[in-house]
Amino acid sequence: MIDFLSNQTAYIDDVANMIYKEFVEKTSSKMTFLEVKKFFSNTKMDDFPITLIALEDGKCIGTVSIFENDLKTQDLYKPWLASLYTKPEFRGKGVGQILITETLKVVKDLGYKELYLRTENAAEYYKNRGWVFIGNALDAKNEKVDIFKFDLKQEIGER
């Protein structure tokens, strides 16, 4: 089942833990766990930031967020898919794709015509799912990232 984190607040710690371990500890970010938890405690359903979660048997097995901007050097692009994460034991089972598909639907329902993302190491994953590479950019740490766009005018479904 996919739902908004704001509807399932009991999973805020789970999401904060996943994101902290994957996207904060593994980088040079200075955010603390409590800051990450506070951020996810304030996600919404119809305004950014928005976080979706994948639930199975009462456990949170994955998450994805929608940010107004996920790359400050590219502020002309809005909104962004961000922080896609599936627990390792559930990878390869379509959880990430289901989260992406639901994210596309949410963004389209909000009236946007496209969605962007940045990736350092998953370009092929997104290319294989209908995302179009639009270029490279430098992030705030001067590291190269790939930028992709998904055209929400096309049919949204399994890719």
Automatic annotation (TrEMBL):
Coiled-coil zones: none
Pfam family, one: Acetyltransf_1
SUPFAM superfamilies: Acyl-CoA N-acyltransferases (Nat)
Keywords from the UniProt entry: Acyltransferase, Transferase
Superkingdom to which the source organism belongs: Bacteria
Extent of the signal sequence: none
InterPro entries found in the cross-reference section: Acyl_CoA_acyltransferase, GNAT_dom, NAA80
Its EC number(s): 2.3.-.-
Enzyme class: transferase
Alphabetized CDD domains for the sequence: NAT_SF
Entry keyword annotation includes Acyltransferase: yes
Annotated ranges, domain N-acetyltransferase: 2-157
The UniProt record lists the keyword Signal: no
Molecular-function GO terms, alphabetical: acyltransferase activity
Protein name (database record): GNAT family N-acetyltransferase
Protein source organism: Sporosarcina contaminans
